[in-house]
Amino acid sequence: MIFRMLALVGYITSLFILAPAAIADDTREKIELPSLVQEKFLIEMRGNLMKLEDIMGALAKGDFKEVANIADLKMGFGHGQMEQMEKMGKSTEEMLSRKNQMRKIGMPHGGGQGRGMGRYMPENFRAMGQNLHQASEDLAEKARSVGTSPSVKDYQAVISSLEDVSNACTSCHQAFRVR
User: Fold this and answer.
1) Structural domains in the chain plus CATH codes
2) Dihedral angle at the C-alpha atoms of 163, 165, 171, 177, nearest 10 degrees?
3) Mean of all residue pLDDT scores within the chain
4) DSSP-assigned states of every residue in the chain
5) What local confidence, expressed as pLDDT, does residue 12 receive?
6) pLDDT, position 99
7) What's the N-to-C CA distance of the chain in angstroms?
8) Which residues have C-beta within 8 Å of that of residue 1, sequence separation ≥ 6?
9) Is pTM beyond 0.85 here?
């Protein structure tokens, strides 16, 4: 018991000693945002982690339709509008229909800079965000293509697409910081 407590105290002490050096060595590009936008942005990033967990849970259950819906409607292009529709009680089918209408009228990628947080971001950051949204839509397409009796190859293809989404997140977090 004493050993555990000493180890914990040593660990916590090392955090206080090493943390300032780690922060000073952070070479990622810092994104300056208005404080309210920064708060909303960080909430959205944490939300993306939760959405990835939801996707993995649906995948573990073999629910490819749910994998597709989460990836497309909650992480794909125009996800903010889809989330507002969900809050208004719209069904998944209504949201998918709206998204298809947006694609048909030439708004496949959320209409450019859009009304979301991207308008506050530098171009290279926005490009990485576009990669995330595209990878999410590719995952949705791959998951929707799975039939009623998924094969090992189906799982491999969907997991590979999920890896692309995760890689988009990781590459952005390695390049940028907001705090």
Assistant:
1) 34-76+117-177 (1.20.120)
2) -140
3) 85
4) -HHHHHHHHHHHHHHHHHHHHHHHT--SEEPP--HHHHHHHHHHHHHHHHHHHHHHHHHHTT-HHHHHHIIIIIHSTTHHHHHHHHHTT--HHHHHHHHHHHHHTT-TTTTTT-SSGGGGS-HHHHHHHHHHHHHHHHHHHHHHT--SS--HHHHHHHHHHHHHHHHHHHHHHHHEE--
5) 64
6) 85
7) 37
8) none
9) no
Q: Does the pLDDT of residue 161 top 60, yes or no?
A: yes
Q: Lowest-pLDDT range, 24-28, 46-50, 86-90?
A: 24-28
Rounded CA-CA distance 120/111 in Å is 15
- Taking phi over 0 as left and psi of -120 to 50 as alpha, with beta for the rest, 33 belongs to beta
Contacts of 115 (CB under 8 A, 6+ apart): 80
pLDDT at 108 over 70: no
Nearest Cα neighbor of 69 from 45, 94, 49, 34 is: 94
Q: Which residue has the higher pLDDT, 108 or 25?
A: 25
